[in-house]
């Protein structure tokens, strides 16, 4: 039966490491990270102790949105090294007992996908157009978009095409950039093709997928206007008709039937849904194995906020019997060091929150560079910005490039071993003390703390159990206990606090006389 393997599945407690390939390591000197670079750094990933990789999109793409505009979902873009590079990476990772999961994009394709080219050449109402969401415009001569939906990236969610005879024609839907036309999942051909894609990668040895915009795909009947037209990236709004429509669950059940043919494989959904009941529907035993919950990544560094985010995240999946997921940042979200105030305080709080998330039951996702305490780079020159948000908002919003700056590996000068060429985004010169090389040589570095915390989580029996029990704690603090015997304490107050009884297993800052300093966390057994 679907879901019966949950009890002993590797992904249930895994530490995933998110690789944003453009920014991880460049093996060919073109300034853009690639799969060869990931493979070359596999020893580092093994040293870090992670269980699995999540690799952001590397399929063929014109790169209008960092690879989330896919022109061929069953090939690897030459920018990242082609299919051979992925095969070599999978083999290397598996030799080191690291799983490999990759991003897939079911909601939309690139405008350079063969299907979309065929749709532009075909007539309205044709089978070629029926793979996407084409509609006649409203108003005189169809000059207005079919409805009032905005794009996530700014501007309308519709673009008008020129028909093959040269006349102004129909409009196509793109919830994201115009280069990313939405697929019509009511068309059986779309589901059949996605199944081919799933099996193509699973048969090559991939261990599962992170499904982009997993609460998308299904569109409401008739595409009604929005009551309130406003758009922001990555927010919880359960009244948004563009997302979280009931039909999406049939799509996930179809996907799960494929995954069930590969018992080792995991499906992980990007699900921006606020209501716990509706969120939990995505991880029912016959749908997704895991769903990203972004509560911790959206929560300020306060004890009450963190407590509520943890409680909410556990409750959201409890009825479905699925593990919770935890993350503090990713390629779309401001890095936690900056979000928590920047500077020394931001680093200290980021270290503490890492220990909180690793103390929790479920699966953890670490974004590349978090283990180095990298901050956001919010002063990138305007002329290097590449996120489509920058252009689509008329240069009002700078987009997500600040959290995508490449990894610093070694040496004292930029680009710190990331590339032999010019990096696709500049790396700050003052990151010399944050390189992997510098931090591996420093006992109390953030990287060393991550390594030790991940190792303890994997090897100590005190981390057992699927629940937590909250402890009483001073104002501005929180404490919880795992059934196995681990106690985690977070001090988000301004003063040192007395730790509860127990041996300090690990702390994010030095503990003196059983007192935990502000902006710190500790594990006790």
TrEMBL record:
A molecular function (GO) term: alpha-amylase activity
Classification via SUPFAM superfamilies: (Trans)glycosidases (SSF51445)
InterPro entries: GH, GH13_cat_dom, O16G_dom_2
Keyword Glycoprotein: yes
Record's keyword annotation contains Lipid biosynthesis: no
Domain of life: Bacteria
Pfam families registered for this protein in UniProt: Alpha-amylase
Glycosyl hydrolase family 13 catalytic domain sequence ranges: 18-404
Keywords recorded for this protein, A-Z: Glycoprotein
GO biological process: oligosaccharide catabolic process
Similarity remark: Belongs to the glycosyl hydrolase 13 family.
Protein name per UniProt: Alpha-glucosidase
Taxonomic source organism: Nocardia alba
């Amino acid at each position: 039966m679907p879901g019966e393997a949950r009890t002993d599945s590797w992904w249930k407690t895994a530490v995933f490491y998110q690789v944003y390939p453009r920014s991880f390591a460049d093996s060919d000197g073109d300034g853009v990270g690639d799969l060869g670079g990931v493979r070359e750094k596999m020893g580092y990933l093994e040293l870090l102790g992670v269980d699995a990789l999540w690799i952001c999109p590397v399929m063929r793409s014109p790169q209008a949105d960092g690879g989330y505009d896919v022109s061929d979902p069953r090939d690897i873009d030459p920018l990242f090294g082609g299919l051979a590079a992925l095969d070599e990476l999978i083999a290397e990772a598996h030799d080191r007992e690291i799983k490999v999961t990759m991003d897939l994009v079911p909601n939309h394709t690139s405008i350079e996908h063969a299907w979309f080219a065929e749709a532009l050449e075909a007539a309205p109402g044709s089978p070629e157009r029926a793979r996407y969401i084409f509609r006649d415009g409203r108003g005189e001569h169809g000059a207005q978009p079919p409805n009032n939906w905005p794009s996530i990236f700014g501007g309308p969610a519709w673009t008008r095409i020129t028909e093959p005879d040269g006349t102004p024609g129909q409009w196509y839907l793109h919830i994201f950039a115009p280069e990313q036309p939405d697929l019509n999942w009511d068309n059986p051909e779309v589901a059949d093709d996605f199944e081919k894609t799933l099996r193509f990668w699973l048969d090559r040895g991939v261990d599962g997928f992170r499904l982009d915009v997993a609460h998308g795909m299904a569109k409401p009947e008739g595409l009604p206007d929005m009551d309130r037209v406003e758009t922001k990236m990555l927010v919880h709004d359960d009244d948004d008709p563009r997302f979280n429509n009931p039909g999406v669950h049939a799509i996930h059940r179809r996907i799960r039937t494929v995954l069930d043919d590969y018992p080792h494989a995991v499906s992980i959904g990007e699900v921006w849904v606020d209501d716990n009941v509706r969120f939990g529907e995505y991880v029912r035993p016959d749908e997704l194995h895991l769903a990203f919950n972004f509560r911790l990544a959206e929560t300020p560094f306060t004890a009450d906020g963190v407590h509520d985010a943890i409680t909410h995240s556990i409750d959201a999946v409890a009825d479905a019997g699925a593990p919770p997921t935890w993350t503090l940042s990713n390629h779309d979200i401001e890095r936690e060091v900056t979000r928590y105030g920047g500077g020394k305080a931001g680093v200290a709080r980021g270290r503490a929150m890492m220990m909180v998330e690793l103390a929790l039951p479920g699966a953890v996702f670490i974004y590349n560079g978090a283990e180095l305490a990298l901050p956001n780079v919010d002063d990138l020159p305007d002329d290097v910005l590449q996120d489509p948000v920058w252009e689509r908002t008329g240069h009002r919003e700078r987009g997500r490039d600040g959290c995508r700056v490449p990894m610093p590996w070694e040496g004292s000068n930029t680009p710190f071993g990331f590339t032999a060429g010019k990096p696709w985004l500049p790396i700050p010169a003052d990151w010399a003390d944050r390189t992997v090389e510098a931090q591996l040589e420093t006992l109390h570095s953030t990287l060393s703390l991550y390594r030790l915390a991940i190792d303890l989580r994997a090897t100590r029996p005190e981390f057992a159990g699927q629940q937590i029990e909250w402890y009483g704690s001073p104002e501005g603090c929180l404490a919880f206990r795992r059934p196995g015997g681990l106690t985690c304490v977070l001090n988000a107050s301004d003063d040192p606090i007395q730790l509860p009884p127990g041996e300090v297993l690990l702390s994010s800052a030095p503990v003196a006389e059983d007192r935990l300093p502000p902006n710190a966390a500790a594990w006790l057994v």
